[in-house]
Design a protein that fits this description.
Rossmann fold; seven-stranded mixed β-sheet; 2 domains; 243 residues
Amino acid sequence: MEKQYSKVLQTLRDLGHGARDGSSVLDFGCGSGRGVMGLRERGYEAYGCDLKFGEEGDIPALARHGHVRLIETAPYRFPFDDDFFDIVYSCQVFEHVQNYRDVLREIHRVLAPGGVSLHIFPSRYRLIESHLHIPLASIIQQYWYLYFWAKLGIRNDRQKGMSPEEVAHINYNGLKEGTNYLSKKKITSFVEEFFDEYEFCELAASRHSRLNSIYPVLKRIPFASQFLSTFQTRILFLRKNRT
């Protein structure tokens, strides 16, 4: 997790939007709270929000001080005031978002004028689906297909020891109910309802990923960013207007 929020801050810096000491940061979909805790230990005014929390990790301590909060669902709302954050970010969250319009509206609302947002999430056309480790499962979500791979022994860490039928049912329901892999065109249509300034910045972010060693080569290849965005990971940058 530390590598993820570090990648976010480094990418924003490269884009000309570096965080300052004491900057207010929201980890949208913060999970165990490790990112929030790590940022607070480094001097940022960091908070997190999610739809549910467990009792593991840093959550109990952060919750006691209001540093992590539950997202309200009826109506959908981040539990923070307008214009509150300098930065909003998420890692491996947008592929689960069912209500893009609500989420983007709330990101825009809680960002301060001139505030920025960065979101890292797997592409719809990624060869190996990130959560199940099944080829093209973000596109092909039929039960028979998932059963075929389960029969071959493909499992994530939580599915070891399960029968192929159990794994296939879990994966089928998880994909149908818990993921929403949209095309870049569809994502852009939602973004443009709320943000005038945005870009997909996969090439810039690759400098701070496992691709950093070949970044000097990638930046010289036409369409490298488009390739990464289509077949690997999307990195979505948003900026709220100052007025």
